[in-house]
Each structure stands twice: as C-alpha cells, then as structure tokens.
C-alpha cells in the first residue's frame, strides 16, 4: 500500500516515520509513505500557497491550485483522495479497515482558516478524527496512517487485531492486561490469569470486554 500525504509542514512527520512500528513497516516495505510538500507545486513566484478569503473575514485560506496540481501529479486509476477536515465523516476502526483495502491513498492536510472549497472537486472522501478543531490536518493524517498501517499483514502480530478495541466483528473494547510483578502496592493480578487454564482465561477476558463496553460505551453494543 502507498500513502501520499500532502502538507506544507513535512518536518512534522519526521518523528512519526522514524519511530517504532511505522519505521519497521516502511523498512520491511509493507507500506510506502511519502510526504509531499504542496508548496513545491505553487505557480506563485513567491511560493505562496494561501491568500485572503473572498468576501472578507479572518485568516488565510489555502489556494486550490497548488493542491490541485499536487494531487493530479500523484493520482492514478486506483487512488482514493482524502481531505482532512473537521466537517468530514467521523473516523473509526471500521473506516480504517475500509481504507486498508485501497492500493493508493492521497491524504490532504488542510491548514490556516481553511481551504478553497473547490479543492472538494478532486476528493473522494472527507474525514474528521473527532469533534474538535486542530491547527491542521497533520496530526489527523498521522492518526489515520498509523491506524491503517498496523492492520497491514506482517506489521504487527495478527493476534493483536483479534483483541483490539472496536474489533470489526465484536465491536467490543479491549480486556485489561497485566504483567510482572504479581503484586504492586497492594494491587494484585486476577487469579484466573495465573492458573494456566486457557479456556477460563478466554472466558474471563470476554466477560471483561462485555462488562467494560457496557459500562463505558453502551452505544457500541446496540
Ligand atoms: N483539521 C483540523 N481539525 C481536524 C479534525 N478534527 N479532523 C480532521 N482534520 C482536521
């Protein structure tokens, strides 16, 4: 899978691409992630990518031309173009599974007060990572890229997906986990996890998932 991320702040991705699981997935060629600075595509002689809004108002608006040309230079027949905006469809694990199926994604990070609405003419979907407003699409782009990459076979142990919160079949939250020591400041590990009986352990974990989901996210059980 290939993901092109269009941004004017490529340096924000340095840590993301060079750390832990994402770094290893790139090295193993399980995913290709390209950071594309759409400022490189502007026809403005001073390198401008934004301007004041028609009709007046605060702030600067990203211009359509640099983003349009950047997308057109990267887009193939099998590409899905995603625009990141608080106005978009709410992102969730189901959407991560859906996006994982595409061979090529172009993710556009908005910035400033917004973007010229004509950018919407070249996008296939709009995504929001939650009902709050960030200064730009870079953090949402990392969140989405991370959530897709970890679903690609070989990136993490397959077993991890089975127990993920929001697992696509169960839609339950994850069960609690523990590691050494057995006791810490009077807090102990549940006995059932120490008895080696895997049937009992599976049953306990499943019950914990159901209880936790009922308590915290009853909306997921409907
Ligand atoms: N850009 C700014 N806020 C955002 C959000 N919540 N989701 C996606 N893109 C955004």
What's the short version?
This protein is of the alpha/beta class and 222 residues long.
SSE topology sketch:
Blueprint: E1 2-7, H1 14-17, H2 20-27, E2 32-37, E3 50-51, E4 61-62, H3 64-74, E5 79-90, H4 93-100, E6 104-109, E7 114-115, E8 125-128, H5 138-149, H6 158-163, E9 183-184, E10 187-188, H7 198-216
Helix pairs in contact: 4-5
Bound molecules: adenine (ADE).
The site of adenine (ADE) has 12 residues, from strand 5.
Protein traits:
222 residues, alpha/beta, five-stranded parallel β-sheet, binds adenine
Q: How large a portion of the residues is in β-strands, by DSSP E?
A: 15-25%
Q: Give me the Rg, rounded.
A: 21 Å
The kinds of small molecule bound in this structure are:
adenine
Q: Could you say which overall geometry the principal axes of the C-alpha atoms support?
A: elongated
Q: What is the chains' assembly state?
A: single chain
- SSE succession: EHHEEEHEHEEEHHEEH
Structural class: alpha/beta
Strand segment count: 10
Low-pLDDT segments, ≥5 res: none
The largest beta-sheet arranges its strands as 2-1-6-5-8
Sheet of most strands: 5 strands, parallel
Percent in helix: 25-40%
Please, how many helices? 7
Please state the average pLDDT score. 96
């Amino acid at each position: 899978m290939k993901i092109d991320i269009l941004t004017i702040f490529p340096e924000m991705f340095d840590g993301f691409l060079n750390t832990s699981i994402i770094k290893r997935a790139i090295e193993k060629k399980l995913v290709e992630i390209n950071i594309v600075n759409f400022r490189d595509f502007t026809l403005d002689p001073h390198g401008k990518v934004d301007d004041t809004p028609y009709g007046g108002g605060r702030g600067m608006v990203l211009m359509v031309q640099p983003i349009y040309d950047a997308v057109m230079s990267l887009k193939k027949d099998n590409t899905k173009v995603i625009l990141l905006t608080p106005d978009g469809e709410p992102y969730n694990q189901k959407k991560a599974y859906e996006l994982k199926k595409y061979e090529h994604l172009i993710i556009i990070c908005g910035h400033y007060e917004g973007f010229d609405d004509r950018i919407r003419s070249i996008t296939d979907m709009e995504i929001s990572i939650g009902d709050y407003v960030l200064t730009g699409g870079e953090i949402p782009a990392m969140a989405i890229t991370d959530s897709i990459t970890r679903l690609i076979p070989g990136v993490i142990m397959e077993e991890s997906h089975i127990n993920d919160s929001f697992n696509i079949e169960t839609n339950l939250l994850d069960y609690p986990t523990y590691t050494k020591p057995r006791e810490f400041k009077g807090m102990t590990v549940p006995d059932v996890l120490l008895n080696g009986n895997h049937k009992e352990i599976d049953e306990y974990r499943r019950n914990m998932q159901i209880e936790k989901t009922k308590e915290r996210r009853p909306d997921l059980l409907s």
